[in-house]
Write a structure and sequence with these properties.
about 475 residues; alpha/beta; N-(1-d-carboxylethyl)-l-norvaline Dehydrogenase, domain 2; 6-stranded parallel beta sheet; 3-stranded mixed beta sheet; about 45% helix
Length: about 475
Amino acid sequence: MQKLNRTTAAVTIVRPIKILQFGTGNFLRGFTDWMVDLMNEKVGFNAAIQLVQVHGKRPATDIADQEGLYHVITRGFQQGQTIDESRLVTCVHGATNPYLDYAGFLALGLNPDLTWIVSNTTEAGIFVDKSDKNPEQTPNSFPGKLTALLYHRFSANHDLMTPDLHILPCELIEGNGEKLKSCVLEYAALWKLPETFTAWHEECVHYYNTLVDRIVPGYPTDEAAEIQKRLGFQDELMVVAEPFHFWAIEGPESLKEIFPAEKTGLNVLIVPDLTPYRTRKVRILNGAHTTFAPLAYLQGLRIVKEAVDDPTMGAFLKSALYEEIIPSMDRSPEELIPFAEAVMDRFKNPFIRHQLSAIALNSISKFRVRVLPSLLGYIRKKESLPPLLTRSLAALLVFYRGRYKGQQLPVNDTEEVMKYFSDAWRSDDAYEVVPEALARISFWGQDLNQYPGLSDVVIREVKALLGEELERRA
């Protein structure tokens, strides 16, 4: 079997490097780079991508060996059909490591074709490292590296530097573009860069808040040999991704002309405000996960697909989504239902084993952000309690008991939360545990006992879940 490279794959086209990408990991290669490759093919975007290693001091020899080529294997369940297809991505030019070649990294900023900068450096990647005191040496943080590159671009006859730069951070934090820009300005102050740089930066460098969504499990270790045989190449960089993808970019309408992703049919939107899309994702996708994960685990289920396929849990999840979560939201059902349908398809993906125990990590804070707004929104709109979301809250409290039907539960949360529930459940008295837990403002942001009848219903649901165990203890 041939090793994948541009010679063996007969890839001869050379494109200008228009995109600098901070991050070489699975997500960006299975998301942004895959999209750029489709844009090159379908709308003549004509862009190559230069990757930048953000972490580690070893060269990206695997990317060099395959000359930037790799396959994206799209696998999942969509609109009633199982999807299993592959695409050879050819738009990646290579990878640079700033720790090994800082001068070469800075020189990337002088490229007159450079128009876009993309990043995914994890949620903790956008920060200022005060130990980065000298821009002549490789900064530790991603924003430090970016600032050094921008300043190098500015310093080298910046009046001739066109076009403007557009920065699309993909880190999963709210206001990611604004926070990255703030960090760059903080570095400019820390390094005492001239005011002319900050003026140029304000005029010519544009940051956009973004929201990204796609599950990219990465290299298919267990099935690699079989997939490589099917592809006809030895590809050590291939990544598996689900069919669903969504990228919302908060920016002006004019951005669509220079970043024509929508014209390819990709699920990419350029919008004036990300808020409704973020709310939709948190309340429906993340909210669905957190709503049913503890209850499904108590029912003996361990995998998301297994839980969705279970007649009882599948019906519970569907009803919770369509009868309680969506009705609790302020957008019209016509806007939300297609997204909910896509979520159900994603949960049925036969190629992804998403552990319920992973979803249950830090569930108290997740419930507060993802589910509680729907529960309270339902109360506000319907003037009654949502029975399924209330049952979910009861299951959450039982899950944090840490044991159920003779088995230990994988409860994992902050030290404060773990200690509280360990102490609270010593009595095993739902009449005592539930009102006290619901009163914890540090958990929920408010005393939930203020909602008439909520405590009583949760107590009833907790007793139903623990009925047999409490009878045995009695």
